[in-house]
Amino acid sequence: MSAHSIGPAGPAGPAAGLAIVVLTALALGACNTRPYQVQPAKAIARAVAPDGVRLVGICYGNVVNTPEQVLDEARFVCGSEAVELRDTDIVWTPCGLLQPTRATFACVAKPDSGS
Question: Domain extents for the chain?
């Protein structure tokens, strides 16, 4: 047993714990937090997509992304097609820790505006 006592924050005191928290926050802040494309959920694809409709999955986080960012990414992935939100899920997704939710969008033909 050592003659020196080490407290709950370790030998450097509470300053070391604060430094670790700050460095972790900075490292996470440097990560790309844009919504990104993944595979749509297979169960959702079977349930909500008729034949020929392309589905895309977009990972996002409510804390780091706005709904507009998620829609913009879906529109980018779908290209010239319109997007329709079909479902969201958070269980067993391939999404990361900061963006745990997957939205599944259908890429559909834009309605003809020349009637």
Answer: 36-108
